[in-house]
Amino acid sequence: MRLALFDCDGTLVDSAALIHEVMARTFVHFGYDRPDVSLTKSIIGLTLDIAIARMQGKPHVDDEAIAMTAHYKTIYAGVRDEPGMDVPLFNGIRPLIDELAQNDDILIGAVTGKSRRGLVHILETHGFAPHFIVSRTADDCPSKPHPAMVMECCSEIGMNPADAIVIGDAIYDMQMAKAAGAKAVGVSWGYASVDDLVSAGADGIVRHPSDVLKHFS
């Protein structure tokens, strides 16, 4: 048995536009300029409070970052429902998940910096909820690259981390996988560069979702 653990934002779905808009409105609400989209993309994958603190150049989460996190969560659903704020699957993700789900030797899970509510919304919106049997979110574990998300998913279903493959677009995904003793596969269609993923410890890089299947053969 193998376990495929997918990151969500930047790996399964293209959510950068939505995340950036919510983040930008949050910064403006607290009296800051709108951040550049490249800065927002650089923190996607981290737990929200840590992401905001890092965007501000702070070494630790402080009271303001906590307040900004609360505001972000408050306005997120409303922004998501605005026209043009859809969160589509990347091309090729649906057939990949469908094929993995048909393989009795492969289990599917999610490890994400999103909230539990946010992950459930994505999985239900795209009809993936029945396929993902285990998951850990920012509500459950320390932020990536801490290995807890991977290790807890493996523990829940009785698998060794060495039999898990983390598929993600962020350096934090690669670092998390290696820290947990799992295989790390980086995707080229997300928000980090291929060079950064390799430097972070990726065991392989895939250029199209269908290429993920090769790592389970």
From TrEMBL:
<dbReference type="GO" id="GO:0006281">
    <property type="term" value="P:DNA repair"/>
</dbReference>
<keyword id="KW-0378">Hydrolase</keyword>
<dbReference type="Pfam" id="PF13419">
    <property type="entry name" value="HAD_2"/>
</dbReference>
<dbReference type="InterPro" id="IPR023214">
    <property type="entry name" value="HAD_sf"/>
</dbReference>
<dbReference type="GO" id="GO:0005829">
    <property type="term" value="C:cytosol"/>
</dbReference>
<protein>
    <submittedName>
        <fullName>HAD family hydrolase</fullName>
    </submittedName>
</protein>
<dbReference type="InterPro" id="IPR050155">
    <property type="entry name" value="HAD-like_hydrolase_sf"/>
</dbReference>
<dbReference type="InterPro" id="IPR006439">
    <property type="entry name" value="HAD-SF_hydro_IA"/>
</dbReference>
<dbReference type="InterPro" id="IPR041492">
    <property type="entry name" value="HAD_2"/>
</dbReference>
<dbReference type="GO" id="GO:0008967">
    <property type="term" value="F:phosphoglycolate phosphatase activity"/>
</dbReference>
<dbReference type="InterPro" id="IPR023198">
    <property type="entry name" value="PGP-like_dom2"/>
</dbReference>
<dbReference type="InterPro" id="IPR036412">
    <property type="entry name" value="HAD-like_sf"/>
</dbReference>
